Structures are given as C-alpha cells and as structure tokens.
Amino acid sequence: MSSVSDLVGRCFRVSSDVLGLLIRTLRDDGYIAIGPRKVGESIQLEVLDSAEDLPRGWGDQQDAGTYRLVRRSDAAYFGFNLGADSWKKWLDPNRKLLWRAKREGESWEVEQAHTQVRRMAFIGVRACELAAIKIQLRVREVSRLQSNSTDTNSSALSAEVSVEAPEEPFLVGLNCSQAAATCFCASVHTGPAFASGCDLVLTEVLNDDDHYFLIQILTKRGARISSQFELQTSIADDLAHIDRQVAQVSDSQSRQLNISNPVDFFSRRLEHSHWDDVAARCLSCANCTLVCPTCFCSTVEDTSDVQNAVAERWSRWDSCFNLDFSFIHGGSLRSSTRSRYRQWLTHKLGTWHEQFGSSGCVGCGRCIAWCPVGIDLTAEVKYLSQATR
Amino acid sequence: MVTIAKEVNLSQAEVQLKGVVAGAGDQYLPVAYSVTSRKRETADTVTLTLKPKDSRSSVCPRPRPGQFNMLYVFGVGEIPVSVCGIEPDGALLHTIRRVGAVSVALCDSKVGTVIGVRGAYGVGWPVARMRQRSLIILAGGLGLAPLLMLIRHVVRCRSDFADITICIGARTPQDVPFLREILSWQRLKYDAGLFDVRLIVDRADRDWRGEVGVVTSLLPRSLTAPECSLALICGPEVMMRHAASDLVRLGLSHCDIYLSLERNMKCAFGLCGHCQLNRYFVCRDGPIFSFEKVESLLNVKDL
Ligand SMILES: Cc1cc2nc3c(=O)[nH]c(=O)nc-3n(C[C@H](O)[C@H](O)[C@H](O)COP(=O)(O)OP(=O)(O)OC[C@H]3O[C@@H](n4cnc5c(N)ncnc54)[C@H](O)[C@@H]3O)c2cc1C
Ligand code: SF4
Ligand code: SF4
Question: Which residue from B283, B274, B15 is spatially nearest to A149, judged by alpha carbons?
C-alpha cells in the first residue's frame, strides 16, 4: 500500500475479529470507544474496552410496546437493532453543568464551565442514527444563527469564558443486517443505505461457512486507523452484496410513514377527534421523547450549596409530556394529555419542517417499542389521515 | 480492488459535529449587574435599576422597546422579564411582580445585590412601522411594563405619529403601576392630533373618580382612518384576543395589530423548546407577534 490517504474511498474485506483491533487502535489513538453493550436485559451504548464487550450472538424482538433480547443461533456481532439509547446520550448528555458561580460578600462571579473534552469514537452508527445526529446539529445551528443577540452576548463574555472545541467524534457506521418490526427508515428516506458522513462503514457478512466484514474507508482519519488492519482486497460482488443487503433490509420494513405535505397536514388537524383517542391511551410518561434521538428539549436547574456560596446551573433533558413544561404563573398551558401528545407529534412531524427544514423523525421506531402502551406514531398518522376533524 | 462509487463528502458532517459537543454553556452565561435603586410601584410590584457591576465588567446589548432580559438571582433561578426602560446612562429598568420563587427574590433584592442578566432577547415592538400612523396602545395590568419604554419614545417624538390613544387597565386603583407617570402623560398638551390617555379599573374603591370596567371598553367606538392605524397590545392573553377582535371589527388589518405573548422560557435563544407555539419559538420569533401570525393559533385551546 503506497500511502494511507490512498485508502480513502475504497472498500476492503477484513476478518471478523477486526473489531477487537479496531477498538484497541482507537483507544491507542486516544479515543474513548463507545458502542453497543448488553446491560441487564437491553443493549445500551456504553464504553467498550474490547470486542468481548460487544453483544455477540444476541438479537432482539421488537414491536409496539415490546423490546426483548433473544439469543441468536449464530455468532453475529451486530445481529440486533436499536436499543433505547441513542448517540445523543453522548453528544448531548442528559445532565450537564453550564456554569458555576462563587459568592464573595454581596457579589458573585461566574466561573468558566469546564467542558470535559473527550475524544469519542462511536462504533456501530446506523444510517437513521447518523441522520438523527445531523438533525440535532441542525437544531443547534439554527438556534445559534437565529437568536440575534446571543452573539454579541457571548463575545462580551469571551474574556471570561473559553469554550474548548473538542475534536468531532470518530464515526464507525454500520449497515444494518436486518430490520426490527418497528423500523421504518426506508419510508422516511434516512436509511438503511449510507450515503456519507462516517469515517468508516462496516457491513457484517455472515453465512454458513464465512464470517467477515466489509469496510468502506471514507476519511483520512478512517484510513489512518484502518491501516493497522489486515485489509484484503474486496471483489466486485462485495459492493453488490452491500446493495443487496440494504435492499433486503429496506423491503422487510412493514411500517411506513408517508405524509405528502406535513405542514399543511397537521395545521388542518389541530382539532382532530383522534387526539382524544390517543389521549385515552397515552400515560404522558415521556418515554417516547427520552428515547427519540432527535428530541432536544431541555430545562435548567439552578442550585446552590448549603452556605449559598457556590451556585451552579445545570441543563437536563426535559419533555413536552411533563406538566411543568408549559407552566406559567397560574397553571400549565398544556394541561391535558391530548394537548401534550398533539404538541409532540405535530412538532416532530410537522412544524419541525418550518423550524429546521426537515422532519424530526428518522424512522428509528424507538418510540414505538418503548411506549409502555404501544402507541405507534405510524398508526396514529393513518387515523389522522382519514379525516381532518 | 473496488472503489466506492457513492458520493464521499464528509467535510460537512465533520465540521458541524464540533458544535454539538461544545454545548450551549456560553449562551447561558449571565453578566453581573448591581441593583442601584429599588422602587415600590404597587403592593406586589417593584422596579429595579440595574447597572453593570463594575467598570471592567461586560455589558449586555442595549435593548429595544418590547425586548426582554433573563434575570438571575444567585442560587435561586432565572426568569424572563421585559425591559421597561433605559436610563440616560444605560442603566436597565425592570418592573417585577412577586408571583413565585424567582420574582419574589428579585423584588426583595436590596440596593447592591448582584443580579445576573442575559439578553436582550426577542423582536420588540415594530417601531419602524409606527411612524406617521395613528397608534392605539392597550395595556392590561403589568402589561404596561413592556410598553412603557415605547410610550416614553412616543411621548418624546410625538410629532412622528398621528392620533395617539393609550388605554390602561388594572384590577383596582392600588394595582395601577407607574401611576404618577400615567398622570403626567394625561397632562401633556400637543398642538396637533389627538393624545388621549385613559385609565380604567375592574373594581373601584371609595376614592376612585375614574372609569370602571374592562380595558377593552376604552377602545374607540369608531376610527377615522383604520388603514393608517397600528395597535400595540400587552396583557392577559384573553384580553389581547378580545381586544384584537374588536380592533379588526373597527377596520384594522390583522397585520397592523401586535400583541406580546407570555410562555415558559428557560434558554431564550430557541433551544430549550419550552416556549413553542406551533411553528414559533416565542422567545426568538416573538414575544411580540402580529395578530395575523398568531390568530388561528391562539384560537386553538391548549396549543
Ligand atoms: C417575554 C416575557 C416577559 C415578561 N416580562 C415580565 C415583566 O416585565 N415583569 C414581570 O413581573 N413578569 C414578567 N414576565 C413573567 C415572569 O417571567 C414570571 O412571572 C416568572 O417567570 C415567574 O417565575 P417565579 O419563579 O417567580 O414563579 P413560579 O411560579 O415559582 O415559577 C416557576 C417557573 O415557572 C415559569 N413561569 C412561571 N410563570 C411564568 C410566566 N408568567 N411566564 C413565563 N414563565 C413563567 C418560570 O420558568 C419559573 O421559573 C414575563 C414573561 C415573559 C415570557
Ligand atoms: S419519533 Fe419515534 S421513530 Fe421517529 S425518530 Fe423519534 S423515536 Fe424514532
Ligand atoms: S406516547 Fe407512549 S411513550 Fe409517549 S408519553 Fe404517551 S404513553 Fe409515554
């Protein structure tokens, strides 16, 4: 191999035990490797020390209101689909310290919030999840661009605070080997095919007598890491195999979400009787918003120590299903479950387009599986389509 | 060896990813201001004058009429409060009603207390559209606070506008904020055009000689040139809805009626999600909206 950068844009075969080497190489390079790990009875996105930590041989069964891990008959590394965790757990942690202030007499000063800079590598990012990461980025970008005065504000503060810009996470994409019953990425065009956006993309190939990965190298960074692997020349059929696998995953999805003019669709249905029907089932538990990889709402908590000498501001995930969310003096504006479910769905699928230029749903199906009463947004939209009232 | 045929374009995703991990911590940082004076307006409202803590400290951008700041009390919390005035030296005036933890702490803060300020946020009143027009200004209760800076501007630049009608409502005579200033406006005399300042209370006491009723009853019965009029309304949402409908009946277009909405706000820069009203982030796209933009939304219960 002439030089590392020659690897960019190419596809190779690698043996199935490459994952251990991948994790080790990333760790040696200073990254924290994060990926799927079996914790209790589900698969979560946690720090990986070695390939032993991957849930090899496990699969899952998912449906509306159901998530169950099952043993597979083979030794697939990625024979399962999405769990409740999404990458927002790492990119936008549930709780984070925004700043700390210390009191001296009557006065106080804000201290620099130390952003803990970690070089993260995400292993096993699926197409719908990459789409979700991009949507969350877009939300932040729009907030930065459109809130007119914050720029002036933060520049006024730049003497006091320096926010370190950490290195972007290293992304190891994964082409799905199968779809869960809850998946509908194909209908919302976020997957299962990968276009671009990762450093490496893995495809697991497992048949009767063979178990290997196809690795597509998409960046220089990716090439540098992969140069440590034993890269075997791939054959023309390997790329065709990826396409076939993607097509199969796509065809096997039975759930669909198609709304031709979503903004108009929901603005005509704000008083639809079906909202009452969902409200009769929905527990307002907020599970759907917590597992959704694009839900971004947060709240702040201002705390202080016992002596009231040190105060902190924390941000934490919030949900439009919480009663407090819309509280103003005198009561909550969305006091009914009807109004809260309506807010969630019309925002996610409708007004999101007006605010951020895309749908807020990537078709990952998590909200369907993790809803304790099995409320399924694809089905609710079908009911809403039947009439406008 | 096979080369990937598909598009390989990563730079975008890579560059963008940096923003996420950095978070929005810097946008949440308050600037330290000191309370330099504290004035009781009514039994439950106080006006604070705030100045940058010391000459070295940073200053928030100068607010425009109708904009608001986020005010933070050490260890207690932070709330949105409209800017009701700016002193000639740049000091900020905020009038606060005691309703809960943070507003009570703000009202109880003494001269010298350090308050955190972030802002200014929101779009403000449509000052540029007001010139040469007749103005109808309607305030219910503390809704006068976000209008005060605007009214002071109108009084100062009287000749820029045609007829001016200001209608102010309060629960009882004791609840009228800025009473002395309102009385001083009532004494103003101008050569040209109507300048009418009217005050009304829901419930009178023995000493009250003025009008009794709802503030919308002060609206003119007819308008000579509704197409050249602009209405600016702030108060409880029900009142604003009624007032706006009345004004539409008087011939004003929906796009010439402005109202200031109140929603729960945690960030004020369109990120926490709390203030959403359908497609709008009230903190960023508002809090002042034309009736044209929000009429259909305000008519939907619990939106
Ligand atoms: C744009 C804007 C301008 C405002 N201008 C003024 C003003 O000039 N003077 C003034 O006295 N008040 C004003 N308010 C209302 C003020 O923000 C609330 O009274 C305040 O948030 C109450 O907080 P609390 O902790 O005292 O009360 P609590 O009842 O303890 O509030 C708990 C939490 O609920 C939320 N909340 C409660 N009431 C409101 C409310 N009315 N609006 C928004 N969030 C609320 C806050 O997040 C608060 O932290 C304004 C609100 C907005 C949105
Ligand atoms: S709305 Fe449901 S299916 Fe869509 S992205 Fe969120 S969790 Fe996934
Ligand atoms: S839709 Fe389901 S998951 Fe979401 S709040 Fe209602 S009960 Fe909970």
Answer: B283
